[in-house]
Amino acid sequence: MDMQKYALGPLPNDGLSAEDRDLFSDARPVPYEPYPVAVVEKFVNWVRANSLWLLAFGTGCGAIELNPLMTARFDAYRMGVQMRPTPRQSSVFIIGGYASVKTLKRIIRSYEQMQGPKFVVCLGICPINGGMYWDSYNTLNKFDEYLPVDLYITGCMPRPEVLMAGVLELKKKIKEGRADGANRYIENFEWYKANQKRVIKDWNMPDYNW
Amino acid sequence: MANAIQLLADFGRNFTLSDIREQRVDLAFCKAPKEQAVRLIRELRDDAGYTHLVFLTNTDYIEQGIFTLTYMLHNYDARHTLGVHVDLDRNAAEMESIHNLWAQAATYQRELREMYGIRFPGSPRLDEDFCLEGWDQIPPMLKEFDTAAFSLERFHSREGRGSVDPSEHMKTLLYPTHSDEPSSGGS
Amino acid sequence: MQNWPSQIGYFMLNLTIVGLYGMLLSGIVARTLAKVQGRIGIPLYQPFLDLAKNLGKRTAVSHGVMFYLGPVFRLAGGIGTLAFVPVLYGSEIFGNFSMAGDLLLAMYFMFFGQLGMALGAGESGHPFSAIGIARGLGQMTAYEVPFALAIIAIVVQYDTLSITEIVAAQQGGIGNWTVFTNPLAVIAAMIAFLGMTAYPPFDVVMAPNEIPIGPPTEYHSSYLAMMTMNQAVFAGAKLILFMALFFGGATNLVELVIKTWAIYMVAVVVGAAFPRFRVDQSIRFFLRYPTLIGIAAIAYTQAVLLP
Predict the structure, then answer these.
(1) Domain B4-157's class?
(2) Is C219 in Cβ contact with A32 (below 8 Å)?
(3) Which of A32, A55, A77 to mutate to probe the C interface, most C CBs <10 Å?
(4) Is residue A210, in this structure, part of any structural domain at all?
(5) Which chain B positions have a beta carbon within 8 Å of A205's beta carbon?
(6) What's residue A2's pLDDT?
(7) Which of A45, B78, B132, C31 has a CA that sits 20 to 30 A from residue C253's CA?
(8) Which of A50, A51, A77 sits opposite C41 (nearest CB)?
(9) Mind listing the pLDDT tens digit for each residue in B161-179?
(10) Is C58 close to A88, i.e. CB distance below 8 A?
(11) What's the pLDDT at B182?
């Protein structure tokens, strides 16, 4: 995937009907640059790592492990983790276990509405290789073909402790500036879109959900 | 409920029931012909107290060329569950809708339409997508649909996937020197 | 008002202090609530991190001109409220732009921010925003009734519309505070205060689990940061206004912090103890006993205090 791909013209939005096409933006997303001053970028990365807002969107059975995370026993608030009910404000998307094709559509819409920098954490074995549903007609086997993944937490099901360890690992990655999934998504936009459209046969949404 | 068999025997005067079978004290099954099934279910609901539709599901007997629908009904007063089996021809799978008996049955019928391709004429929103959106293959729950091959082709299995027998794995993990053969040095 | 430049400089200082205090207060409240729930809770500085994170977001999406202006109006409401409330009594630095009719202006600005927010969130087009705004404006109209009645009562009592003069009248001992001279008005105003802070049982606007976060659903990045800042300034300004009107004002910063913290804790403790009202319950609640108490406060002021 070469870097020139995202400089192509406006998005075609083929999946939309003619009258709907006017309602959606056809602008291409562009990758964003880090702050020019290294110290500022480092500070902002530290802030980002310590203020992780999870999108409260349970995409699979693993979402049940997210709720105890916020309760008195595990209390992820003390690590700067909060749940946000709207994708606009959240920065971390936890794929909670298996993702079906129908859910993938919603995942893509929510992910693209999140504001960068944004991070995707895959929870459980299913987004990695399908897990126990690897031969199902509806479960995605390699989630990283459809969205860029910053961190995997394997297990079936991972307990909240593992999830917390994953959060700490994600923090480390963000602080080091290695969690750049959102930019990878835009740089390889055509490849991700082609993969998404290969499994989503009734593509009836804009090519990028601004 | 001891009189479930009795009840079905009574119903048997008006319907041709077969395979009457008492599974447990609170669970019984019977099989009704396709033409009589909905009338039987209506009478069970209205006259015999089986007011609750627990579920409606289907089994694919590909060898015999039939689908077997199961209408699971529950009687709250008697605390008794009754399953009504209905055989359908696999090649022309069509059944009378019961959405006017229980509104929620429409959802079950929508699912059966999607997963097995069984038609329920008159059922609301029958042809809308339910779990599968944009499905372009034969209905996935049919026995002739090879899900593993489809998944490999569509979803690209990840390399490096293996499987181990749990008991063997734990045996080698916990007792590395253990062998099933009796050791020659002993006794 | 002769010394404009220095007064503006002083106001900026006030704004910074009150803003920082408001942010810290939200951290304190979150930690207090965490203790109630048996958790450790967020670090005290977490609100500052969240603010910096939102400011440091790399992308932002707009939904139109009013979408931009909503947070600006809201921030203007917060700053405007603060501008006309003297933070400390008898201090030139912390006096702000206090003048003869500043109580009316402060009340107006408290309304203004909400209306601007309503326009901005309305343009975002999210259904939850629209529902949240309808609820917010409905509830605001309801709690303004007891609040306005309480204000009328103390205006009649002190015969002035100047906050500084009201504070001046309460000096000279704890017995001179409005809360002891005119308790009915303070009760009505404090109940209205519960509605203003939007903690349970009056959190029908944000209503988590119901209309997830209401009006700001579509707000993100620096828009959200702006609204967080306003929340801090507005909360501080409101607390200072309540302290000045009902609890004798403050003559130094320590007194200010203790008194405003105690006032805020009323809302927090009530919030930690009660579940949420339904919208209709909440609105009817304000229009019943608090309103009656407010009317009684005016009658009490007229009949008992004035003669």
Answers:
(1) alpha beta
(2) no
(3) A77
(4) no
(5) none
(6) 46
(7) C31
(8) A77
(9) 877 888 888 888 888 776 6
(10) no
(11) 58
DSSP letter at B9? H
Residue A171: exposed, middle, or buried by beta-carbon count in 10 A (0-12, 13-18, 19+)?
A: buried
The whole domain housing A111 covers 5-29+53-199
At A79-134, the pLDDT tens digits run 889 888 888 889 999 998 888 999 999 999 999 989 878 999 999 888 888 888 88
DSSP H/E element including B108: helix B105-116
Residues of chain A with pLDDT under 70: 1-8
| C114-137: b (≥16 Cβ within 10 Å) or e | bbbbbbbbbbbebebbbbbbbbbb
Q: How confident is the model at residue C279 (pLDDT cuts 50, 70, 90)?
A: confident
Chain B residue with Cα closest to A129: B158
Quick check: A122 and A143 in contact, CB under 8 A?
yes
Q: Compute the mean pLDDT over every residue in chain A, rounded to the nearest whole number.
A: 87
Q: How much is the average pLDDT of B116-130?
A: 91
Mean per-residue pLDDT for B156-165?
82
Q: pLDDT tens digits for C255-269?
A: 889 999 999 999 888
pLDDT at A3: 47
Which CATH number characterizes residue A188's domain? 3.40.50.12280
3-state secondary structure chain A: CCCCHHHCCCCCCCCCCHHHHCCCCCCCCCCCCCCCCHHHHHHHHHHHHCCEEEECCCCCHHHHHHHHHCCCCCCHHHHCEEEECCCCCCCEEEEECCCEHHHHHHHHHHHHHCCCCCEEEEECCHHHHCHHHCCCCCECCCHHHCCCCCEEECCCCCCHHHHHHHHHHHHHHHHCCCCCHHHHHHHCHHHHHHHHHHHCCCCCCCCCCC
Going by C-alpha positions, the residue among C112, C19, C109, C124 that lies closest to residue C68 is: C124
The residues spanned by each domain of chain C are 4-305
Per-residue pLDDT for B63 more than 90? yes
Predicted pLDDT of residue C152: 92
Q: Is A199 on the interface with B (CB under 8 A)?
A: yes
Token pair 């048997």 is found at: B12
In our burial notation (b when 16+ CB lie closer than 10 A, e otherwise), range C147-157 reads: bbbbbbbbbbb
Would you call A55 exposed, middle or buried from its count of C-beta atoms within 10 A (0-12, 13-18, 19+)? buried
> What pLDDT does residue B2 have?
54
